[in-house]
Amino acid sequence: MRPHLPTFLLSLALCTSLFAQAEPAFDTTSLKTQEKTITTVLEKMPNSPNLLSRRGDMRVFLGDFPGAISDYEGMIALDPALDAPHWRLGIAYYFAGEFAKAARQFDKYHAYDGRDRENGVWKFFSQVRGEGLEAARKGLLVYTQFDREPFPSVYKMLAGEQTAAGVLEELERKGLQKETQVVFFAKYYAGLYASVTGHKEAGLKWVQEAVALFPPAAADRGGPGYMWQAARLHAQQLASELGR
Questions:
Q1: Are 96 and 88 in contact (CB under 8 A)?
Q2: DSSP category for residue 25
Q3: What pLDDT is stored for residue 27 in this prediction?
Q4: How does pLDDT run across 126-178, given as a tens digit for each residue?
Q5: Rounded to whole angstroms, how far apart are CA atoms 37 and 79?
Q6: CA atoms within 13 A on the CB side of 66
Q7: 3-class SS at 136?
Q8: 217: pLDDT confidence band, cut at 50, 70 and 90?
Q9: Dist CA 171 CA 150 (whole Å)
Q10: Predicted TM-score (pTM) of this structure
Q11: Cβ atoms within 10 Å, residue 94
């Protein structure tokens, strides 16, 4: 999703596969250091939405979803105008298993930005986890404007009009297979869709391949982008569910 608060951009750098054999442990040392530093500053400046935002991000990346929710909700308490644009709060709710709250947060964001299909993708997965596939399809947000690749194809997949493999095949047909960010999102969301429609092995493979497109140290803030961190967390969850 487009960041309307602090910016999180995926690096365009390529890397060799991090998951060719087995998924290596992600080094969280930098994230823990940043969280500790921000916490120290927050003790002196407790009413800083920006500091709460930054610590909330670190907590998401570290898997402390209740802590992240507390920080993100704290931002909104200080400045209610931050509520509707706060898709990151929706992601924190999702990973915390609060799927109804996540779906509502993505609904709020849709009223704020009705063009960003990635927000609709996250609402769909929130509803799948909370209410099932049929309800999620009925609740798909409506988009009338082109967003960006590969999201039109991803959205057709969610609606049942395209297979997960078909999303990846469409990259080839459109000549997008060398567009690293496009491939990242296609593999990430195709993998998530596969995982919730009975194909967890294929889902894990695609999500791992998405994560492997970018090296962990490719960008600032402890990683190469917010959505890369989300994909990394999903890869860990799927691997755990499969007993890896």
A1: no
A2: P
A3: 87
A4: 999 999 999 999 999 999 998 899 999 999 999 999 999 999 999 999 999 99
A5: 23
A6: 0
A7: helix
A8: low
A9: 8
A10: 0.88
A11: 24
Tokens found for residue 107: 């609904």
Q: How far from each other are the two terminal CA atoms of the chain, in whole angstroms? A: 30
Q: Which two tokens stand for residue 135?
A: 């309800």
Which whole-number Å values give the CA distances from 96 to 66, 89, 142, 147, in the listed order?
Answer: 7, 10, 26, 28
CATH code, 27-83: 1.25.40.10
What would the 3-class secondary structure string for 69-132 be? HHHHHHHHHHCHHHCCCCHHHHHHHHHCCCHHHHHHHHHHHHHHCCCCHHHHHHHHHHHHHHHC
CA distance 242 to 239: 5
Cα–Cα distance list, 104 to 73, 90, 99, 131, 232 (Å)? 14, 8, 9, 13, 24
Nearest to 190 by CA among 214, 218, 171, 215: 171
CATH 1.25.40.10 boundaries in the chain: 27-83
Whether the bond into 150 is cis, omega within 30 of 0: yes
Q: Provide the pLDDT for residue 224.
A: 53
Q: How far apart are CA 101 and CA 84, in angstroms?
A: 13
Nearest-angstrom CA–CA distance, 26 and 235: 11
Confidence of residue 9 (pLDDT cuts 50, 70, 90): very low
pLDDT single digits (tens) 24-79: 568 899 999 999 999 999 999 999 999 999 999 999 999 999 999 999 999 999 99
